[in-house]
Structures are given as structure tokens and as C-alpha cells.
Write a structure and sequence with these properties.
Helices cover about 15% and strands about 20% of the residues. By secondary structure, it is α+β, with helices and mostly antiparallel strands. It has one domain: N-terminal domain of TfIIb (Single Sheet), CATH 2.20.25. The protein is globular, with a radius of gyration of 11 Å. It starts with a helix and ends in a 15-residue tail after the last helix.
Length: about 70
């Protein structure tokens, strides 16, 4: 699990909006114009725009479990 201090400084690299954690394996950009979701793999957030692009059309409710 990511520490609160670390989460407080994370922002979406595409739109610079603060990301919010969803479960233990995802960080989600709440900006409706962006909608990127970033996986957390082995406790490391993968904050690459290209990675977030993969999950733009995935609903937040469907982000259960470990990213593939």
C-alpha cells in the first residue's frame, strides 16, 4: 500500500490532476476529460501516459484485482 505522503504528491502526468487510489492496485484521474487509470504493480505506480491510456474506457467499478 502506498503511503499517504506519497499519494499526496502524485498527479496524472497527462492533465496534472491529483490522482485518487482505487483499491490497492489502481490510481485514477478524476478529471472527466482525462479518465486515465494507472496500475500499481509491486507497490510501484506506473505513471506513464501510455499506460493510463490503456484503461481510459474501463469503468472504475471494473478495476478490481491486480492489473495484467
Amino acid at each position: 500500500m502506498l503511503k499517504e505522503e506519497f499519494l499526496a504528491i502524485l498527479a496524472c502526468p497527462a492533465c496534472k490532476t491529483k490522482v485518487v487510489p482505487v483499491g490497492e492496485h489502481w490510481l485514477v484521474c478524476p478529471n472527466e476529460a482525462c479518465r486515465r487509470k494507472y496500475p500499481i504493480i509491486d507497490d510501484i505506480p506506473v505513471m506513464l501516459v501510455e499506460e493510463g491510456d490503456k484503461y481510459v474506457d474501463v469503468a472504475v467499478e471494473d478495476l478490481d484485482g491486480t492489473p495484467q
